[in-house]
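Quick note —
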Amino acid sequence: FLIGLLTLGLLAINAGCAEQKYDINDFSGGLIDIVSEDSLPDNASPDLCNVTLDDDKGVVTRKEYIDYNTTAISGLQSVPAGYVYKKNDGTHYIIVQSSTSLWYSTGDGNLTNLKSNISTSYRHDFATALDCVYGGNGSDSEFKWDGTTLTNYSISNSTNMVKARYHCWFMNRMFRAGVNNYRSTLYYSELIDPANMGAAGQNWEYISQDDGDVITGLARSPDGSFLVVFKQYSIWGVFGTSPTDWRIKCLVPDVGCLYGPTIAYYNGRIRFVSKRGIEEFDGATCNLISKLTDKQIKGLWQLNPSIYLWTITTAADWGAGS
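Predicted structure written out below.
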């Protein structure tokens, strides 16, 4: 009798512990790692690090990457910079920096040399204006390319040109920043003349002069109404239509962009990497969108302190292009 009762009890326990299947159609919560698993909502997961979420197929393994250039060019190293240059006639060029050269492709996977003998210690930045692409890295000469002819700017073919790390075409002027020894200064060209930085060399504005912070990137605001100037630990805006009525205002005093190339537009907002993590800027305030995955970021520190410092704190390795 006792054996029978024990058997029935075990059967009941096994029945209660049987695996159950649940239909999950909503994965909108994504990866959340800052709370215990039993506290997560049904649409989130504590482990979605190498997958994408597809509306039709559910959880799908990420496809990693594919090689773009069909044949590796001898001597090519890492690619710290890339840019898509779109012309008015519909032609697209892909520009990449690698080793000591800039290369371009028409989209077929073949790379052609555009500019040689550039510094490997600086990363190029680009902006399209007047159907041409303009660029520079803060060390080598600024240049213009129209898809056919490359023009390197010098005293003979430009006016007071500066060597800048960051470029943005806004209100029909080319804004430049990140000039050596003047890292808190914003430079601007004459109207509809990207190569003319002012005959008197006075086309510049201080963005909180010598405050221990440096400009790290330029972008148009999400609504296109003002120029956003990112510093490492703050965000500023330039309002107005011309130098005579410009107003410079600090928008966010305690959050900035660590590294300009992380600046990207997404769903009408600007995203970038700050000291806190990944931010989203709507033109007025910042939202730390990586907060829910904070353990993933902090895990870099436990894995390798130097990696954490490079990617989250100083970004020094990114800046060197290696």
